[in-house]
Design a protein that fits this description.
Length: 448
């Protein structure tokens, strides 16, 4: 059973609300002063507060109510608080709404609306607490992983990334090839670093090769080395390839899908036997190399199209790890962005909303570049949306559903459907409560 704390210096009001809430399945605690209210909060588990704004007969300023609200908020940041008064100005109520008050109702109140507001807020509060409990539990698991393995500085919060990282740490010590898939800039190389750092060859070399950046005619020489004069423009000295450089460690092949069919044949042989020849040489060399490859291409489609060998795909794909795009793991946006800060700057609340509103087609790489840009351009310690270079999206951050501004009819329908409960209507519209109040003022809509 949920418990509601009623705070009002009018005994008749306390009695009326006690009766109203009790007959509708709620437990009620009553306090007739701010001091009593804070004492009740200290000794009892309270789920929601309904508080008056004035506690002395000769005052109508609401200052006492403001102080009580802020005292409760400092102790219980997530506590739903409904403001109830006949005197306090709308401006004061709106100010407290901006500070986190759940709703504002005037005296005399409408029983039906008040009950609807209370029950909706209690359900929302219960869901929020359960979500925080789950987040806390997941954080404990992530901390265990971070304590047991070297995550190479990776910061994440999402379940999707945790699944990928957990699998990466589990397969790290298995001497098998790993294929990492995902879009460009999502963090595939970081996952490869984690595998290497926790592998049995962690002390060995970690050689990175961007296959897509190498001309096809030089691919063999880059990967397997070349003898003097083996090709036009070749050095007059023997040139070891990347496989030789990675002997006893790990070779990371990025953008594997661009490898030529000739290169694929040679790569398949190395994976099967550990043997290869330098370009221009008949001497067979042998290496022991852990191969991790990455691609943003659909290799299965490449097999059907004849551009990628099926036998190589299955040789590389003993373990496949997928790194999801940043847009599908919104929980990672702010932690990752904060990790990119230079230590001298912080994000404003508006900048954080802009970060969350952006779709990040360039994934983590785009996010990193945006934060670096902001740290250079910010005029003070606090980064604003304009500093990120995402001005249009920052302006739409209050309207997550595609940036569509709700019109007067949409706002009115949402208010009607929520029985006038601001918190519920705002959530349905994808707005903050403050943003909804601004639109209500703009459209001349009064709270019912």
């Amino acid at each position: 059973m949920s418990t509601v704390l009623v705070v009002d210096d009018n005994t008749a009001v306390c009695t009326a609300l006690d009766l109203l809430f009790s007959i509708h399945g709620l437990k009620v605690r009553v306090a007739e002063s701010p001091e009593q209210a804070l004492a009740v909060l200290d000794e009892s588990a309270i789920d929601l507060v309904v508080q008056d704004m004035n506690f002395r007969r000769d005052t109508t300023s609401g200052e006492e109510g403001v102080e009580l609200f802020r005292a409760i908020r400092s102790r219980e940041p997530d506590m739903p608080i409904i403001l109830l008064t006949a005197w306090t100005s709308v401006e004061t109520a709106v100010t407290l709404m901006k500070e986190g008050a759940a709703d504002y109702l005037g005296k005399p109140w409408d029983d039906r609306k008040l009950l609807t507001t209370v029950h909706n807020l209690l359900r929302l509060h219960a869901a929020t607490r359960e979500n925080k409990r789950l987040v806390s539990a997941r954080r404990v698991v992530r901390q265990k992983v971070a304590g047991a393995f070297d995550l190479c500085g990776l910061v994440y919060e999402s379940d999707a990334m945790h699944e990928t990282v957990s699998l990466a740490t589990r397969v790290a010590r298995a001497d098998v090839p790993v294929l990492i898939t995902g879009p460009n800039g999502a963090g595939k190389e970081k996952i490869a670093e984690i595998i290497q750092a926790n592998s049995s060859v962690a002390d060995g070399p970690f050689i990175r090769v961007n296959v897509g950046a190498l001309p096809a005619e030089l691919m063999s020489a880059e990967l397997f080395g070349a003898e003097p004069g083996a090709y036009t423009g070749a050095s007059n000295k023997a040139r070891p390839g990347r496989f030789e450089a990675a002997d006893g460690g790990t070779l990371f092949l990025d953008e594997l899908g661009t490898l030529s069919l000739e290169g694929q044949v040679k790569l398949l042989r190395v994976l099967q036997t550990g043997q290869f020849e330098r370009l221009g040489s008949t001497q067979t060399r042998h290496v022991i190399v852990r191969v991790i490859s990455a691609t943003n291409a659909d290799l299965r489609a490449g097999i059907k199209a004849g551009s990628f060998r099926e036998d190589l795909y299955y040789r590389l794909n003993v373990i496949e790890l997928n790194v999801p795009p940043l847009a599908s793991r919104r929980d990672d946006v702010l932690p990752t962005a904060r990790a990119f800060l230079d230590g001298a700057h912080r994000f404003s609340a508006e900048a954080e909303r802009a970060l969350l509103a952006h779709s990040w087609p360039g994934n983590v790489r785009e996010l990193q570049n945006s934060v670096r840009r902001a740290c250079i351009l910010a005029s003070g310690e606090e980064i604003q949306p304009a500093d990120l270079g995402l001005q249009k999206l920052a302006a739409a951050a209050e309207v997550p559903n595609g940036g569509v501004e709700p019109d007067r009819e949409s706002v009115q329908r949402a208010l009607d459907a929520a029985n006038g409960v601001i918190a519920i209507a705002a959530r349905e519209l994808g707005l903050s409560r403050q943003a909804l109040y601004r639109r209500m003022e703009k459209f001349g809509l009064a709270q019912a």
